[in-house]
Amino acid sequence: MAADQGRTRERPAWLRRLAGGAARFAGRVSRPLVDRFRASLQLRVVSSTLIASTILVLIFSFVVAGSVTSGLLDERQDTAVEETENAAERAAEQLGSFFTSSDTTLPSRMQLIVNELAEDPVYAPYIMLRTADGAVVKTHPVAGGAEPSEELQTTVAEGKVATQYAEFDLDGEGPQPYLVVGSFIDLNIGYEIYAFYPLESQQDAIGLLRTNLALAGVALVLLLGVIAALVTRLVVTPVREAARTSQRLAAGLLHERMEVRGSDDLARLAGSFNLMAENLQNQIRRLEEMSMMQRRFTSDVSHELRTPLATIRMAADLLYDNRDEFDPLTKRSTELLQHEIDRFEDLLQELLEISRFDSGFASLEVEAVDVGRIAEDVVEGLGRLAGECGVEVTIAKPSRRVIAEVDQRRVHRILRNLVSNAIEHAEGRPVEVTIAESETAVAVAVRDHGVGLKPGHADRVFDRFWRADPSRNRKTGGTGLGLAISLEDAKLHSGTLQATGAPGKGTLFVLTLPLQAGNRVINSPIPLRLEQKKEAPRATQD
What we know:
alpha+beta; five-stranded antiparallel sheet; 55% helix; rod-shaped
């Protein structure tokens, strides 16, 4: 039985789906409004002003309406009590000769008194007069049988003047508000007189007051909203202008300035903003000039060094070719000289390449090539270095050729830098080169299992002349510019070059290039994760 009752209380599934759909629809409809409210300071200020002013106007209207209503009713009550007491005195003068309610002339006399009082404009239009014992009750004929409440009759019977607010249908036009005032006439047999005062004029006055208060409140709220919007606009407009100007400054339009109007706080803010922008522009201009001078210096020095280097190279080659004729010490010096000149030529070539990137003169010579074949050539060319370091280099690639529109020379340089770097840091462990493709991109991952990278070093490996461990012995004697140039080459292809690593777990470099020149890389076919490496199906090992 309890289970049946629990099932009857559960809402049906269709009702839950309907409620969920309605909630989602309400969320979609209200989301633009909420976003607009959050994004606009002026809208929030105006809305807050309207809400606060509406609450204050409502409270003020209720207080004023209540105070005026109470005042009007109290004034009418005082007047009605005074008029009723006068009517009671007038009726007492004419009823003083009756000593018993059984007198046959008493009813007619009471009727005459009631009619005279009702016809007199000084008194209430509806009057009831009866004996205290209730034996004889006569009212004005138009009064139509309206009776005061028992509580009011009990209070009047005690000899007090009492009042009551109630609604009666005395004229046949529907219930209307009345003020009933009852007074006791202390004569031989005792009488009670009740006067019915209509409150139509007071009700109309109260209604007119409430209407005026409502109209005035609405007008006041709207006026406050307009004032808040205007005041907020005066403050928000310079702020918005400053935001737009700062966005244009961030976009590189350093000549943008705010318009200064007047000499108030906002004008001083605009002046300070313009001064800051001017100083920023000057500082950026100085930095650009310094950077330009530095690039020009690097380019000029690199070019100027080529002539003496060529002379030194010829002399060194001559000494190197005849090294066997020298004594052992001179022979070793000649070999060292040849090695360092080779390294110096590589450094000079890379400096020239860096200067081309910095000056924006680097360009691509795109052709459709097999990326897998480029990787094989790189690994084959570094076979001697891998043998000296005791590192085995393997290649995993798809069975079919991976054709991409790239600059073969630059891609070969990127992969050579990545593979040689991996061999150098592999600590004798294998190096894995993985090639994969998607519908829009090709990726080459170079993974070693050597010393790895410390936290934060993955973002710095592409910095110029940066080395993770300067104290380590190097086989290749790199210049410190290889990875920096590789990153620039990848960007020139609209591709990406990323790195990750962990101490003792090795390092992973992922090069991703678009298959078609001019496109951009969105997702890489190989994820940048050490734990999992995406290997192409049916891979071949070299």
